[in-house]
Each structure stands twice: as structure tokens, then as C-alpha cells.
């Protein structure tokens, strides 16, 4: 892991809140010239510290009124089953987040749907028809308190 200095930390804090800052704004945020700030930003991307930059879109604004957290336990835990399940998570648009975890379940997924009928159809297809699922437990999100929050970087410098 590359060492993060104070200027890198300030730059990372700035781009986590707004990835479209101008070069002047980036320089001001990290106490460097705009050119130096852009060079650092390019290096942070090249080093894999900044994995990607994306817009945060409101699910409700697009009609996704249901957001569910789903704990999934596979019926078999051999490498092929796990790898196929991971690949299907990556390829399924309704699954917005997927984590392979330790503990009582094998995976936790975030799934969006327009309504409960659509979510029911998703579960029938994704869990019953495609994969050897032992159990899955759904918790419907009532409200999002914090999502996509920035990583704490100020203590890394």
C-alpha cells in the first residue's frame, strides 16, 4: 500500500464529496497548485486508491421504491457454486451491492425493485430458479440513513 500524505488525504476527502471539482478547486482543497493537484489525482487513480468515479443516483427518482438487504446462504459451498453466484451478482442489475461474508450467511445483497411484485419475481428467478440456495432472509429498507459515505482518510497521513 502506498503511503498517503496530508495533501493526498485532503485531495481524497475533496473528491469523495465531489468528483467534478475543477483543477483550481482541487488545488485549493489540498494546498497545492492546480497542476500538482491533478498530477496527484492521476497518481491516486493509477495506484488503484481511487477505484472509480460515479454519480450517486436516487433509486426512488427512477421508480425503485423497494430496497432490500438480503442475507443468502448457499445450499452447497464448493468453489464453482460460489464463483457462479458471484458472477451472477455482478451481472444482475437489480443487485446494486453484493458482499461475500463470514458468519451466519454466505452473502449480503442490496436489491432494488419497483414494487413488491417485482421483488417477488426477482426472488423466484434469482434464488429459486438459478442457484442452489439453502435460505435467504430479506429486510426491506424503511429509510436510508447513510449510503456511499466517504472513507475516513484524515488519519492516514
From TrEMBL:
One of its GO terms (molecular function) is sequence-specific DNA binding. PROSITE patterns: HTH_ASNC_2. Keywords: DNA-binding, Transcription, Transcription regulation. SUPFAM superfamilies: Dimeric alpha+beta barrel, Winged helix' DNA-binding domain. GO terms for cellular component: cytosol. GO terms for biological process: regulation of DNA-templated transcription; response to amino acid. Gene3D superfamilies: 3.30.70.920, Winged helix-like DNA-binding domain superfamily/Winged helix DNA-binding domain. Pfam families: AsnC_trans_reg, HTH_24. The keyword Transcription applies. InterPro entries: ArsR-like_HTH, AsnC-type_HTH_dom, Dimeric_a/b-barrel, Tscrpt_reg_AsnC-like, Tscrpt_reg_AsnC/Lrp_C, WH-like_DNA-bd_sf, WH_DNA-bd_sf. Residues 4-65 form the HTH asnC-type domain. It comes from the Bacteria. The keyword DNA-binding applies. PANTHER family: LEUCINE-RESPONSIVE REGULATORY PROTEIN, TRANSCRIPTIONAL REGULATOR AZLB. This is ArsR family transcriptional regulator. It comes from Pacificimonas flava.
